[in-house]
Write a structure and sequence with these properties.
CATH class of the largest domain: Alpha Beta
Amino acid sequence: MKLLTAGQMREVDRKTIQEIGVPGIVLMENAGIHVTQILEEHFETLEALRIAIICGCGNNGGDGFVVARQLYMRGILPDVFVLCAEDKIRGNAATNLNIIKNFPELPVIMVPDERTYKRMGISFDSYQVVVDAILGTGLHQPAEGYFARVIEDINRSPASVLSVDIPSGLFADEYRPVETAVYADITVTFTTPKPGLILGDSYAFVGTMYTVNIGTPDSLLHIDDHYLNLTEDEDLKPFFMPRKRDTHKGNYGHLLVVGGARGKTGAAKMTGMAALRSGAGLVTVALPERYMGQVISDCAELMTEPLAADEEGFLTAAALPGAVELLRQRDLLVLGPGLGAGPQSVEFVQGLVPQLDVPVIIDADALNCVAEDTAVLNKLTVPAVLTPHPGEMARLMHCTTGEVQENREEVAREFSQNFGVYLILKGYRTVFAEPSGQVWINPTGNSGMATAGTGDVLSGILGAFCARINHQNRDAWILAAVAATYLHGLAGDLAAEAFTEEALVARDLINFIHTGIQQIRES
């Protein structure tokens, strides 16, 4: 599903009206109808409840006027509060205000300023439902003054709140911490979600979100300039179709995991186990010989191969010939889980990357080795996926973690385009970027996954998925990466439900991969 900024949405609306020929008042009507229908779905005895519809002077308020009329036509009389002077309401919003003013039984209360608001002693405490149609997506600065006062009063009331398009006080294009915004129980957004509804801590304000089509054709949404996407489980179904009966392990790829140095053998082991649970046909873990027994101690399905290591138990440049030889019979490499990031590891990674003739997932310690000289990525001749967390991304970009977190989507997109690699920037709302500039936001996952080893599990799932695709097919890479990221977060959500977020450990994710796959298939 596309995510459109306020500016992009205005342009889509303009084309819908001017080029497609759908009148703007029809779009507003459709918006109000959808909001009313969702109110009916959520409140079985809507006609018995006191409802306040609070409207601003723009199109968001116009949507609220349509909701009022739709409720009136169902025999329900909400109180409509208009937070501006009537002469400031124009266009389609003014038309819909004039209509409801002609219904003598429908209370339309003009409250043009804060002084009038105070004088009238308006309170929302006696309402069971409040419809927030105040500010909409055009907000460019924090809500203050009169509007902030009303928003605070809404939040203090016991009413259930439905926000029209976006909770008033949030910014449509990004999530920025705000002092004052509506805490909605339900948000009904139009055509596509806005980035500000998805990113950061917006979930605290948005509640349950519905996205409804108000008459815009898909052809206006799916263009290259609209590069932000939100992953939905239905997008992934092609990747999770049941296997054909006439098949064998060779159809599902042979994955090589290289890492597992001293003290970090478990990282490589978990990557291999996650890959097997995610459908890989064969998985080999290559690591210092002295640690091979630790890998297969309770996972006999994993194969192991020794690579040259120093006395401290870390792979060195002497391991390069062995690693290159192993790759001749493998479909994909996962490089980095438990590798170590000392000088010997840097030399190994910097020497191996230019020699690769199979696709690679670069993760964990290998990312820090690449960060020593990112120019090595320009020597890649095969598809590559990098999977940094924010700290690793900061090292790759030679900036601070805070700078990465301030604009995760743009940072991931810039790096992906500059180096021609696929990139998964882990964290809350994990971001996937691909070299043509498209970006996907992943909706699954939780704070319990902020624990050691969960990134290694992602690498295993991703490795299993990428090992079995057509490596020349860009769309296949995108689907594999998006599907792996979604399943990884979903497994984490299922594990958190079972064990709580605080008690979750990385191995729990592996144990819920199968349940996640079943849920996607059944969704």
